[in-house]
Amino acid sequence: MELFCNPAVASVYNSPAQRARVISEQWFSENSYCLACKSDHLTKTPANTRATDFSCNICGHSYELKTFVRRPRKSLVDGAYATIVAMIESGTAPTLCLLERTELWRVQSLTAIHSSFLTPWVIERRQPLSEHDRRAGWVGCNICLDRIPLDGEIALVEKGIAEDRVEVRRRFQRFLPLSNLPSDQRGWSTLTLSVIRELKKSEFSLSDVCEREQRFAVVYPGNRHIRPKIRQQLQVLSDLGVLSFKGGGRYALAE
Ligand SMILES: [Zn+2]
Fold it and tell me: How many angstroms separate the alpha carbon of residue 212 from the centre of ligand 1?
């Protein structure tokens, strides 16, 4: 993977935002690959395709590219709130690709935020734009990256070094079965995984997770079946190969 972008491709543009978009899209189209299948090529989508910049011709997985000099860790500004929520609910949300580059356009990191981890809980509605704004009343959103477990952030390039493609795809594809679940069910699975990661233990018990029932109650207020739901999610995560059941109510995290 070539890690230097070519700023010359944007020589006819003056606006810094437009230049950044053209340079990063050119690099991405030449160097990215599909995470969801074996295809080594992604295709640029027509201009103005909603929340999607690239897609795979083989499996149809879609990608939205965002470029930064310093990528955000906590929260990411995204487009229209209603659009992204509708895409999440219909199972068509893209995988977000965060490209972090130096001032001289060397790629420092490229991180995929797996579409299976985009659930209603991670989307925060912003205040409508004020009446003084050209787009008064428009409602945007933030993507709360700090509500996504690290499993959902897959590095393709980290600290200026490209990761092994086979391993990147393995990390990504093990969570693809989640995309077949309704967004609410995925929400339970990914939240359970977040809570398990917060335990910071390689082995844990069902009761370790259930002790954190309050974390679930914040996201699903009024739900009276939190414990059975947690037990069900541990089964889902075991089926994905993220956990293994050790017997006696104990589980181990797989690598
Ligand atoms: Zn594909």
Answer: 37
Phi, psi of 107 (to 5 degrees): -75, 120
Ordered by start, the domain boundaries in the chain are 7-175, 184-253
- Residue 254 pLDDT > 80: yes
* pTM of structure: 0.94
Distance 129 CA to ligand 1 centre (A): 37
The residue type of 215 is: R
Gap from CA of 96 to ligand 1 centroid (Å): 15
pLDDT at 212 over 80: yes
Q: What is the CATH number of domain 184-253?
A: 1.10.10.10
Ligand 1 center from residue 150 Cα (angstroms): 22
**Level-2 CATH architecture, domain 7-175:** 3-Layer(aba) Sandwich (3.40)
Question: What value, to the nearest 5°, has the Cα angle with vertex 223 and ends 220 and 224?
Answer: 150
